[in-house]
Request: fold
Amino acid sequence: MLTPQDLRAKAAIVGIAESDLGDVGAQRYAIELAGQAAYRAVADAGLGMKDIDGLFGCVMGRFMSNLDLGEYLGIQPRYSDSGNIGGSSFISYLFHACAAIQAGLCDNALIVYGSTPRADGLRRQMPTGSLERPNYEAPYRPRHPVTGYALSTARHMHQYGTTREQLAEVAVAARAWAQLNPAAFTYGKGALSIDEVINSKAVCSPLTVRDCCLVTDGGGAVVVTRADRARDLANPPVYMLGAGEAHSHRSISQMPDLTTTCATESSQRAYAMAGLGPTDIDVLQLYDAFTINTIMFLEDLGFCAKGEGGAFVSAGRIAPGGSLAVNTNGGGLSHCHPGMYGIFALIEAVRQLRGDAGARQCPGAEIALAHGNGGQFSSQVTAILGTGAAL
Amino acid sequence: MSDIRERAPYECFVEGLNRGVLTYQRCQRCIKAVFYLRTNCPGCGSVELELNESRGLGTLYSSSVIFDKEQAYNVVLVDLDEGFRMMSTVIDCLSPTIGDRVQAHVEAQEGADPRVVFQRIQGVSAC
Reply:
């Protein structure tokens, strides 16, 4: 019988790619960005698309995403997972792909994403899907998903004294990292100040527009294969050392405690599988849809005590040059965010472990943590990745 | 009280609203307060869910003001004294304070089912 520990270092990420990002234009579609990223990632791995026998994907607006992806890519996978638990889905797919590989259900798994909210806006394409019923929240017109995070932020400030300045530090650090990433949407836009974050347009109090992630087009893909095959491929393998997931609610009014996510559970599962803890992590990629996310995840993943996340991020601690490297690509706040950011956290973690992160490279990074979030703090998925030296 | 097992939960909730009351369920097996209304208790799975009328008294758990193009309005989470939480809005103040005591009212809406809104109980924070 398979145990969680049996998954440690049995599969590795061998291919990664982002599609064209940012503003791709009204003539381009989500499935095309997904396809572009998929072919790039498979080529990066030194494989061919016909080698892919496990498919894990989500394409925005496509109700049966994997059917679209399989058709578009010309593959007929023997293992297929298109479940959607929000933006964390891609890190969840990594977890599930490793389990499927270990069980012999597939050998080469492809994880894919594509979404074009900006292009959809240009062509006035309405978001798909009607109101989910019954709905006890809709009469109050919450703005999804920002209202849920704003309610969580307000409660965290009330309960722990977290300040607007501390929240702004997260956005300031993300922008600074993005200035080191030529692919970032805000690359070249210069630094952001704490005052600018606090005084920008109010969206959903206490959050301003600079506390909120970008809305960009984009796609990404990751190739995962058996560890014993990974060593012969084009790039140094990045091993999956530990993964864990959890979800606690869908609607924000059903979240048990708005100041604590079930990342406490997902991370404990991942640490246990990896045999590692927070002090072993060299670089973190946290799903920063809003500034409060980074603060609460640093707490829930065990990097500081509950309630101390605001003080923890102060004085540039997570910015370039700080003592803990967090969201080195600029994150969802300053790199890109097409609606589901998780795959980009994974891709950046791998880049750092390959030593391919250019001006933002964390020297000597051997162990990375990528953490995904979905819904309104609803689903939490943690993955711990390591180089061959970390085994 | 009508028997929820023989009726559709959401229909029961709307029927309550039409009578001007906020309904919730009390699990007869594990005593958990259940809201929104369901067919089974999310705590223990029991179908023994008694439909109850809330007194509508609660405490503000969190609050956010949404700055819409046309208007600003608040969305709040209220912890009702019976032990359940719901999303709503406070109508007598744009920016109510966490911890405020509030009272539920049922408000008619044009072209939609009535909804539960809250007003602060006098004597609490300035707005």
Notes: The interface with chain A takes residues 9-10, 13, 35-36, 61-68, 73, 75-77, 85-89, 95, 98-99, 109, 112-113, 115 of chain B (CB under 8 Å). Chain B has a mean pLDDT of 93.
